[in-house]
C-alpha cells in the first residue's frame, strides 16, 4: 500500500500548477471586503482543493490504464481501494491543519473567534473525508470523467442550503455549536463519518472485485 500511496503523491505533485493558485484569489478578496464571511469561504476553498487531489490521482490512473498494471500485480482490491482512503485521510488532516493555522492568524487579529477556528478546522476534515467517501466509489464505478460532477455538486449544495435557510428565515446559531467544545463535537461527528467511510470502502472494494 505504501508504494501505491507514494505513486499517488508523486502524480499529484507533478500535476500541481501555479494556475491552481487562482482559485484562492476570490477568498483573499473577500477577506478585504467582508471579514465576517471570509473564514468559512477560506475553509471551503482549502478543503475542496485538497479533497480534489485524490480524484486527480484516480483520473491519472484511468488515463494510463493503471487497472491493467494492477491486475498483473498481486494487489488485492481492498489494498488498492485502501490506498485511496489513506490518501484521503492524509489530505483531510492537512486541510484541518491549514485551516487551523489560518484561523489562528485571523483570530489573533480579532477577525474570528477561537471557537469558530476549532469548528471550521473540524469541518475542513469532515468535508475532505465526506467528499472522497462519495468520490472514490463513484469514480471506480462511473469513471473519472462522469464523477467530476460530484465536485460541482459539493460547491452548489452549500449555496442552495444558504438560500433555502434565508428564504425560510432559519437562523443557524454557530455560537451554540462552538459552545459544545472540541472533544464533544468530535465525539458527535467522527462516529457517523467513520461509518460512512466504511460503507464507502466496502462499495469501492465491491466494484473493484467485479472489474477483476
Written description of the protein model:
The protein is an all-alpha fold. The protein is 83% helix and 0% strand. It has 10 helices and no strands. It has helices at 2-14, 25-33, 35-63, 66-72, 77-108, 114-142, 144-147, 149-167, 174-178, 182-211. The longest helix has 32 residues, at 77-108. 27% of the residues are buried. The model has no long low-confidence stretch (mean pLDDT 78).
In short:
The protein has 212 residues and is mainly alpha-helical. The chain has ten helices and no strands.
Name the features:
212 residues; mainly alpha; 10 helices
Helix content: over 70%
Low-confidence stretches: none
Quick one: biggest sheet?
none
Overall strand count: 0
Q: Helix tally?
A: 10
Could you tell me the strand content as a percent range?
A: under 5%
The ordered string of helix (H) and strand (E) elements is: HHHHHHHHHH
Could you report the average pLDDT, rounded to the nearest whole number? 78
Radius of gyration: 18 Å
Structural class: mainly alpha
State the end-to-end CA separation.
18 Å
Tell me, briefly, the overall form. globular
Would you spell out the secondary-structure blueprint of this structure?
Layout: H1 2-14, H2 25-33, H3 35-63, H4 66-72, H5 77-108, H6 114-142, H7 144-147, H8 149-167, H9 174-178, H10 182-211
Amino acid at each position: 500500500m505504501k508504494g501505491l500511496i507514494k505513486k499517488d503523491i508523486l502524480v499529484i505533485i507533478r500535476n500541481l500548477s501555479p494556475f491552481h493558485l487562482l482559485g484562492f484569489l476570490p477568498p483573499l478578496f473577500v477577506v478585504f471586503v467582508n471579514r465576517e464571511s471570509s473564514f468559512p469561504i477560506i475553509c471551503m476553498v482549502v478543503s475542496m482543493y485538497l479533497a480534489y487531489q485524490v480524484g486527480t490521482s484516480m483520473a491519472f490512473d484511468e488515463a494510463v490504464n493503471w487497472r491493467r498494471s494492477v491486475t498483473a500485480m498481486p494487489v488485492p482490491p481492498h489494498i488498492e481501494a485502501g490506498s485511496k482512503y489513506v490518501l484521503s485521510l492524509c489530505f483531510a488532516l492537512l486541510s484541518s491543519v491549514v485551516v487551523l493555522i489560518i484561523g489562528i492568524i485571523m483570530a489573533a487579529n480579532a477577525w474570528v473567534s477561537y471557537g469558530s477556528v476549532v469548528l471550521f478546522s473540524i469541518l475542513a476534515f469532515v468535508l475532505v473525508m465526506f467528499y472522497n467517501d462519495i468520490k472514490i466509489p463513484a469514480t471506480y464505478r462511473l469513471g473519472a470523467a462522469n464523477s467530476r460532477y460530484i465536485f460541482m455538486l459539493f460547491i452548489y449544495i452549500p449555496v442552495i442550503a444558504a438560500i433555502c435557510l434565508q428564504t425560510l428565515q432559519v437562523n443557524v446559531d454557530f455560537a451554540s455549536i462552538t459552545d459544545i467544545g472540541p472533544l464533544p463535537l468530535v465525539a458527535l461527528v467522527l462516529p457517523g463519518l467513520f461509518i460512512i467511510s466504511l460503507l464507502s470502502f466496502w462499495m469501492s472494494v465491491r466494484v473493484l472485485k467485479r472489474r477483476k
